[in-house]
Design goal:
Length: 291
């Protein structure tokens, strides 16, 4: 399939699917950079929470002198919320940031594929799932790729750009240029389980959990070793709590299933904590307790 040449000049209106932490962060950076953004979630309450979070985040930039009050207001004015995906029919790019469930993602991309014009680009913020399989579920696999933002999106510099096997050079170059216009640093990687970021990060977190499981040290001690001794800004167990232990387990399972290598076996303690509902900050309890 041949893709008609295009550039970021043709990308004006951005759709973001999913108003969770990653979704509203992605919506914010696009709106802050001058793009019209349509943020869609099937829960109105989630959209309201997302708008408040974006407002707070922009306010912090104003306090630090990185934005003016007028820029704050203008950014919010470019961000529109909806509960119906029909609005994506008028978007030049749709970025998906929903739950890490391949079946759910593919089902939604099939719906978007039927809804959106053929020239609309699709991107997924997945942290581990195969872009090649998702792209193959659409009629525009050459216009499909991964944009893996880091959390918190407005602050973190990296965007991991993942080529599906089918991604065209035109699509990749347009998304790379777009990422740079957002003030991000795009890094190209190929489609493989966990890509680069989580293929390296998650086994480290999993090994830290094994050290708790085996009684080598308490969580606080393990995190202190890594922050004080390895100069990490945050210990791996505190980071796991922030990411969500259910997400960590999901990614470890993707690595284990994808590579068939026992070194990616999830720690039994991780499995047990997720089974208990102790998923980290969002549940109030993980390796640490949260109010």
């Amino acid at each position: 399939m041949t893709t008609t040449a295009f550039s970021t000049d043709s990308l004006h209106t951005i759709g973001v699917l999913g108003a969770g932490t990653m979704g509203h962060g992605i919506a914010q950076v696009f709106a802050q950079s001058g793009y019209t953004v349509h943020l869609v979630d099937n829960q109105q309450a989630q959209l309201e929470t997302a708008l408040k979070a974006v407002d707070r985040s922009l306010g912090k930039f104003v306090e630090k002198g990185k934005l003016t009050a007028d820029q704050h207001s203008a950014s919010l004015g470019r961000l529109h919320t909806h509960t119906d995906i029909e609005v994506f029919a008028g978007c030049d790019l749709v970025v998906e940031a929903i739950t890490e469930n391949e079946t759910v993602k593919i089902d939604l991309f099939r719906k978007l594929d039927a809804l959106c014009p053929a020239e609309t680009l699709f991107a997924s913020n997945t942290s581990a799932i195969s872009l090649t399989r998702m792209a193959a579920a659409t009629s525009r696999p050459d216009r499909f790729m991964g944009m893996h933002f880091m959390n918190p999106v407005p602050l973190m510099q990296l965007v991991e750009l993942i080529r599906a096997l089918q991604t065209s050079d035109e699509t990749f170059n347009a998304i790379k240029s777009l990422s740079e216009q957002l003030g991000k640093t795009p890094i190209e990687v190929r489609d493989a389980p966990g890509f680069v970021s989580n293929r390296i990060l998650m086994p480290m977190i999993n090994e830290a959990i094994f050290t708790v499981y085996e009684g080598v040290a308490e969580a606080e001690a393990i995190d202190s070793v890594m922050t004080l001794g390895m100069n990490h800004p945050m210990g791996p167990l505190k980071l796991a709590d922030m990411i969500g232990l259910d997400t960590c387990l999901f990614i470890m399972n993707v690595l284990h299933d994808g590579f068939k290598d026992p070194k990616y076996r999830p720690c039994p303690l991780l499995v047990q904590m997720v089974d208990a509902g102790y998923t980290g900050r969002k549940s109030g309890r993980g390796f640490y307790n949260y109010d």
